[in-house]
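FAQ: What does a multi-protein file look like?

Like this. Sequence, then tokens, then the next protein.
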Amino acid sequence: MKQRICALYLALCAAFLCACGSFLNRSYSSSVPHSYSYFSSEDPSILRADNYQELVNALLLLIGSHAAEGTVRLYSAEDTADPSAAAERACEEVRQDTPMGAYAVEYLTYTIDTSAHNYTAISLTVGYRRTAEQVAAMVHTTGVSALYGLLPSAADSGAQELAVQVGHFDQSREEVCDAVARLQLQRVAAERGLSEEDLAELPEDEEPWQVCFYPEAGEAGIIEIILHKAEIEG
């Protein structure tokens, strides 16, 4: 048990140091004063939240470290007067509306314990649709254009997929899809000794690169290019 707590503490600390600029940077949310009270002083494996925004941040820290479970001590605030409603709302927001949640999380479940006098303990279980290795392999860039430089290298290396977290989404989804399709067409033409004019469209024996955006609605924060879908599914 001690080893497990220690491992979770180290993972969460690492996530805290590197995630503030990526996991917690959410343009759709209102800004609130930053809190340094992420961990309970009694137990470093327990996270603390003093309001709704910090509850969302705590969930993102758990996901950033790929933790399977965790506990958040939610202290009373105006926007968390109903702890159960706040937990449900935060889990739904993280899973559907945040880039990392939409990309990596399959489900979030929780139980509520109100036996303490001054806080509510929210025990969380996280199911993932991406492995810890996939999350760790994600590339972080300031803009979408960097994706086009990374993609040929990923294809040359035989990568099955490329996931990029973008700080500023400065192109439309249609523009990204069109640019990725052009890159693949140029690559196939070069491999077959043809010009782009000679190869107007992708040959039938070539599987198109699949472009996915997370979250699906609104401004995307993560772009995933699946280069070899059959190999991933197999």
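And here is the next protein:
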Amino acid sequence: MTTIWLTRHAETALPTVFHGAESDVGLSDLGRRQADAAADWFRPLRPTAVVSSAMLRATATAGPIAAACGLPHLVEPDLHERRVGSLSGMAFSMDAGPWPETIARWAAGETAYSSHGAESFDAIRGRVLPAFLRVAERHAGGRVVVVAHGVVCKVLMLSLLPGWGVADWVRFGRVANLSVSELHLDGATWAAGELLRVPPPVDELTAGEPTGTGEKSSG
């Protein structure tokens, strides 16, 4: 059996705006402490590989984990965040604007829809699913930490896990900074362990309050 801990990166230096593939922002001071706390948490789980997207916020999260576990830090560039087009750098909102409209239309089955310059659900899935499956194949039988981005994590899980689909976008829940979802591949079948868990030592840094603002379009 292959185990993958699909993990969102730590808090960014600008957590209240939309960050897509267009914005290679780093981590905040809190984000760096979150990454260090996550590294300590992952160490006793004895991962056999640590992989991230090439974006700075992902590599800055994965690097301490790899170092703590005595592993090389590997990169899968196609796991980069969603391209968000004109949303890049705009103040985050879940109440109005292109992102809540996008979620509603995806959940209604319009998975080819995107706002100006942004990737649709179909485009994201077409890019990240093969990349994720390449990682799983390269590390078959292993225990792999994969550090990616909020929307990337959600698209992957809604595409892979039985019983879930894009219509469940809201019901599936928020992909918080450094939330970890345990996925298992046995043969050709994916199954879930615990989903969207923020490791306790990370959670303690903010007294259990999630960091960032809402569920970011990208992050």
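Q: Is there any per-entry metadata?
A: Some entries carry free-text notes. For the entry above: The radius of gyration is 16 Å.
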